[in-house]
Specification:
This is MLP-like protein 43. The protein is of the alpha+beta class and 162 residues long. It contains three helices and seven strands, in the order βαββββαββα. It starts with a strand and ends with a helix.
């Protein structure tokens, strides 16, 4: 059995891909107030949440357990609305040598948008489970964030001057 793998999930969303990408590229520090399973986020190293040399500390729930990790942005592709996050340290380090979480927002031809999460990982041993719980976590966070983005959009519409 291979210790390396890749898994992904794609979720239809109501808000546009541009709004999603904007949230993840410039407003991610608000996620702890939006996503139910994210308990705490804080800047661990650096002074800009969205700089590639900054390290953030995360506390979140996976498979019913509170876990912690650190994260840094590996790359941002604005044109393709794609961001690669590297997770490491703490609970991630116990099971994985490599753990990359890839976010991609896409507007489809039929007017629908979707978020695709891909996890690239390398387990430390065959005893370590593949990160199935992270796929479920991503799906739940997409629902929470999409509801927030839609609510913010509706609020902005109600304040527009005609």
């Amino acid at each position: 059995m291979s210790l390396s793998g890749k898994m992904s999930t794609e979720v239809r969303i109501h808000a546009s891909a541009a709004k999603w990408f904007n949230f993840f590229s410039s407003q991610l520090h608000h996620i702890q107030n939006i996503a139910e399973r994210i308990h705490c986020t804080k800047l661990h190293q650096g002074h800009d949440w969205h700089a590639s040399d900054s390290v953030k500390h995360w506390s979140y729930t996976i498979d019913g357990k509170v876990v912690t990790s650190q994260e840094r942005i590996e790359s941002v592709d604005e044109q393709n609305k794609r961001i690669i996050f590297k997770l490491f340290g703490e609970d991630i380090e116990k099971q994985f040598k490599v753990f990359n979480l890839i976010f991609k927002a896409t507007d489809k031809n039929d007017g629908v948008a979707c978020i695709k999460w891909t996890i690239e990982y390398e387990r430390k041993s065959e005893d370590a489970e593949p990160p199935y719980g992270y796929i479920e976590f991503c799906n739940k966070c997409v629902k929470d964030i999409d509801a927030h983005l839609l609510q913010a959009e509706e609020l902005n519409e109600s304040y527009k001057i005609n």
